Structure formats: structure tokens, C-alpha cells
Amino acid sequence: MYEIDKKLEDLQKQGKPVLVSLIGAGQMGKDIVAQVECMVGMEIPIVVDLDTKTAVEAYRIAGYKGEVITTDDLLEAEKAILEGKKVATTNYKIAIEAKPIQVVIDATGSPEMGARVSLDCINHKKHIVMMNVECDITVGPILRQMAENAGIVYSLTAGDEPGSIIEVYRFAKALGFKVVAAGKGKNNPLNLYANPDDLKEKAEARNMSAKMLCEFVDGSKTMIEMAAVSNATGLVPDVRGMHGPTCNIEDLTKVFCRKDQGGILEKEGVVDFGIGNINPGVFVIVTTDHPRLIEGLVQRDMGEGPNYLLFRPYHLCSIETPITAAQAVLYGESTAHPMKKLTSECITVAKKDLKAGEVLDGIGEYCYRASIETAEVAREGNMLPIGLAKGAVLKCDVKTDEIITYDMVELNENSVLLQLRRIQDQMYR
Predict the structure, then answer these.
(1) 238: three-class secondary structure by DSSP
(2) Residue 310 contacts residue 249 (beta carbons within 8 Å)
(3) Residue 175's closest CA among 87, 331, 284?
(4) Any domain includes 276
(5) Residue 395 domain-assigned?
(6) Model-level pTM?
(7) Are 131 and 179 contained in the same domain?
């Protein structure tokens, strides 16, 4: 990304800014619109939301004072863009089909919508910035391959923890270090059985939905994010659900090392997380057996070894997302993307006793939580990917902490996500 600031300045001077559309104007989406309003060389002419008032609000919060057209008509939207106006719409296809648009950001958080948005982007050759990690861990490999075949970029976002971790990981690998572990600090207490009712007051105090907060507290978001890292790097969970020890920054190299070195790991090359003062940082722990490099690392206060910490003390979430959009257009590169097949799976685990006939709700709600497992073990156990769980109907009773499997549920056959997943499973098995 050399001179990315200069390249954006040049585009601004030429009157050819990167044109981005945003699907989903929630908390993260509003941050993106506000950040782009402060930038040069990039604009967001289209914002999509279920309620156009929310889309218009995103522009106003950002400080945009020009005219915002509300329409669900493609031609009217394209005309407005050419006239320098902004568009608020409920029709996500406009965000993809509008000719001037170069990049589409999916900030919906819905795996099903992520699949539909991505397929349309591929058909219309628009770069995809996938903030929807829940979709990525379910069908990311096939979407990434289809995007490459279409000559466009499919990318996870900078600033989200997977993107931030992978940036440090790529740095370490480029230098030839061996990666022992990669991970993040968890920023909420862990309660595997939390539900939105438990967190209503805390969520209101933080100006976020109780469902979103619950996805963090019950551990699902951490499992999903680290599965995305695993699928992009080939690093694996050391144990199902990862270790998640209580530790601080200064402890990381001593905790995330092999057991024969005094740590908790059975093997090297893993993803994990810690609960302590690590948040909002991310880390990659590396090692080398080269005496000269070891001497240099010690002299530069990286520790006494055998493991050394590469630590990024922040991740700015959606505030960094415009960098990924610019990177796609200017360099044809992703911030992060899955490899050709899944390394890890996020499996579905019951948070309470469930009855036959129940319809499973969404991630961060009442029925289930996510846990990470290797894709091979999950496949052998017929374990249900968490991205496919919403709307599934149980065929049998399920006990608290029991893993929900494919044969326990009836899935929605009209789901684009499900059809893509079946194709992915056949192609990459």
C-alpha cells in the first residue's frame, strides 16, 4: 500500500474518486460513511438499509450537507450519482448494479445476505469488502474463488480483528519467521450461556443492540473471527473452542508456547485469544532458530526467547474499512481472504435445552453459540456450521452444550447460502 494517501489525493485532483456503495447502515456502517466523508479520493454515493431514514441519517451524522435522493429505482439512482448527489435506498441491488460503483461493502452481518450480495457483485464485477465475517467462515472459499475468476477482489476488512491479525501475520511470514500463535484480546467477559435479556441494560448503555453484545459475550464473535484467521492462514485451533486463558500482554510469549516450554499449547501454528489487557490489540507470536536473528531480537528488547511478540495495540474496526476499498481498486489486493478450502469450522453448540420443532434463532440470541473446531473434525462429526443455523428446524431434542449436527435439523432449501455451501463442500472436500 505504498503511497496510498498520495494515490487517493491524485484521484481527487483528477475528479475520479473511488466510488463505494455501502449495504447496512448500522453502527459500523455509520462509522464508514463518517470516515469516508473525511477522506479525499473516495466517496460513498449509495447507502442501503432496511429503512431509508437510517441511510439518510448515516449521511447527516457524517456531516454531508448536500442533497440525498431516496429511491429504489436504478436509473434514478445512477442519474443522481452523475449529478453529484447521494442515494439512500432499501434496494441492495442498486448498490451493486449502479454503473459508477467500483466497490461494495457488505456490513449487513447476515450470512444469507452476504451470499446474495457477493454473487451479485461477482456477476457485475464489483470488488467485495466483506465485513460480514459470519458469511466468510461459511462460504468464503468459494466466493473468493469465484471473485478471482471474475477478475475482482474479495476481501475481509482492515480494522476488524481478523484483518488486523492477518496484516501482522503476513509481515511475520514475509520475514521468514515461524508463527507459533496468532490471536486477539477479548474485550468482554466470557459467559457461554449469555442471552440478549441478560445484557439489555449494558447494551443500552453502550448504544448497541443486545444481540450484538451477546454475540461478543457468549464467545461466538471470537470463535467466528479466529476461524476467519485460521481459514486465511492455515493456523488451527489447538483445542476445540481454543484455550482463551486469562493473561496480559507481558505474559503472551510465556503462555502461548508449547507445554514443554512451560506454556499451554500442544503444538505450534495455532489461533487463540486471551482475556486481559491485550484488548484492543492483536498479536502474532513468532520464533526463529537462526542465532544471528535471535541475538538481534534480544538486543531489540523483544524478549529472551525462544518466542517473540509482534503486537499491534489497536484495531479500529469500521474506521479502517475504507483502506481495504482503496486497496482493492488501486492495487487489486485484499486485506485478507480465505484459502481455497476451510481450515476451521465454527460449529453450533446449544446454549440451553432445546425441543424438537423449535426454529433456531440467530447468532447472539437464545438458542446456540459458536465454537471453533478443525474443518476435518467438524466434517467427520457432521457438525452444523453456525452460518447455516438460523431458521433451521430441530428434528429432535437437544441438551445444553450438545453440538447440533446436520441430521438434527431441517434446513431452508431456499437459502442461497446453503446451496453455495453444498457446492463448496463438493468442490473442496
Answers:
(1) coil
(2) no
(3) 284
(4) yes
(5) yes
(6) 0.96
(7) no
